[in-house]
Amino acid sequence: MGHTNQLVMKHSITDVPAIKNVFQSMSAGNAKLKGKPKRLEALTVAGQSLNIVPKPPMLNAETRWDTYEKVAENFFHNLEIYKLIDPTAIFHKAEARDAWNEGLLSVSDAKPVIVLIQPFLRLCAQWTQVLSSRHEVTISLVRVAIRSLRGWESSARESNTAMIRNGNIDERNNAYKFVEYLDALKERLDEYYGDQFYNYGLFTVAEFLDPRTFFAIEDQAAQLLVVRRLRDLADAGSTAVPPAARLAGGGRGRGPTTTHLLYDRFAPAQNLPQLSPFDLEVNSFIQYMVTEVTEATALRMNPLDFWSRHDKRFPILASIARRVLAIPPTEAECERTFSVSGRVHTKARNKLSPDHVNHIVSLHGWLLMDQQNRSRASVKRAKTTAERVSRFAQFMVIEETLQILPGAGEDEEDDYEE
Questions:
Q1: Which of these, 256, 2, 32, lies nearest to 141 by C-alpha position?
Q2: Residue 151 · residue 28 · CB < 8 Å
Q3: Across the 418 residues of the chain, what is the mean pLDDT of every consecutive 10-residue run?
């Protein structure tokens, strides 16, 4: 999903020529200063006169997951400093001076619109970082991320419509320009994160099996769909109705329909006949989550620890959880492995066999983890990053849960805030 997020950000910007040109102007302006000592010195001097510490100019890197958000943030931080620099002092050619002045003018004029776009770019970058975590189960957060991105577009459109109705002339002009971006974003979200991707079976199953996202499932219909997909992943023996249950039900041995597996928003299970071991366990799991686990407690659970503790109580679901929750939703770890492989299998070492490359890459990963575990600074950085990722993900799930579950009380909200 990491590359998909990048494509959404990239195409929503490049689909609007005016906004695309602004980002190109920002990157081109930074490129005129980056790596030029005399120009960077002029940047530092101008910043000192404004009591602003300039940031090193940043270029647009297509392969970086937060490039658009970082380039805009970097350029806007330095914008007032750039305006103070005398172009004749750093550019010898008139064409370069004219291009510099035109770029600053175009960025200054478009800044109010880009500021409206920045929250989405930041949200997209945050979700990419969350889903690429090495230390957390994140496949269960994919649907939460998609709903978050869709929700931002819908909320921004409502706010923009209000600005068109009630804003002044400048605000309305900016709102009309922002509409073009929202239309392009809506089209790209539908293309990349449409219903077919959003309702992909493993995403829904992971959301159900992760206690952090269990209460964020939208409605009973979605829950019934999850149960059907869980049945496909379970062993055939666990989904068959035992002979004794068939006789007790008085039927011909057909398995139960899934309509009674979910009642009125996670109501307690009933002792119904004709239930297979799988159905009994799903009912028992739902009842356990609803009656013995609160939303606040579930949000703090580690899904791996949860299923390690409950693998005896829910063996069928635990077996599915071990397979599903281990799937990484982004290609970040694969890309890291490819990078290491590229440094191992070079032109000078092109006789290495695939087994040897595999062994060397594996040793590199293990030694790196061991080094990081021994380094206090690395442990502290990893812990800080994990805490930030966890807080962001918990906040988004809490926000969704409060919207989905009716009558969430103030006491529960206080628990979340802790």
A1: 2
A2: no
A3: 84 92 91 89 91 88 74 92 90 91 93 94 87 80 91 94 92 93 94 89 90 83 85 85 58 42 44 74 91 87 90 92 88 81 86 88 79 64 64 64 50 38
Closest among 207, 189, 209, 206 to 148, alpha carbons compared:
189
CA distances from 109 to 19, 68, 75, 243, 322 (A): 11, 18, 14, 75, 53
Residues 6+ apart with CB under 8 A from 5: 65, 124, 125, 127, 128
Tell me the one-letter amino acid at 418.
Answer: E
- The C-alpha atoms of residue 185 and residue 9 are separated, in whole angstroms, by 8
Phi-psi region of 219 (alpha: psi -120 to 50; beta: other; left: phi over 0): beta
Residue pointed to by tokens 């829904």: 204
| Closest to 398 measured CA to CA, from 223, 215, 258 | 215
Which has the closest alpha carbon to 404: 215, 126, 121, 148?
215
CA proximity to 216, closest of 225, 207, 227: 207
How far is residue 344's CA from residue 352's CA, in Å, rounded to a whole number? 9
Query: Is there a contact between 373 and 366 (Cβ–Cβ < 8 Å)?
Result: no
- Cα distance between residue 245 and residue 136, in whole Å: 40
Query: Position of tokens 């990419």?
Result: 128
Question: Distance between CA atoms of 233 and 318, rounded to whole angstroms?
Answer: 12
Residue type at 57 in one-letter notation: P
Rg (CA), the chain: 27
Q: What is the largest CA-CA distance in the chain?
A: 94
Of 69, 70, 65, 66, the residue nearest 3 (C-alpha): 65
Q: What is the DSSP string of 179-243?
A: HHHHHHHHHHHHHHS-HHHHT-HHHHHHHHHSTTTGGG---HHHHHHHHHHHHHHS-HHHHSPPH
Which residue shows structure tokens 């990157």? 27
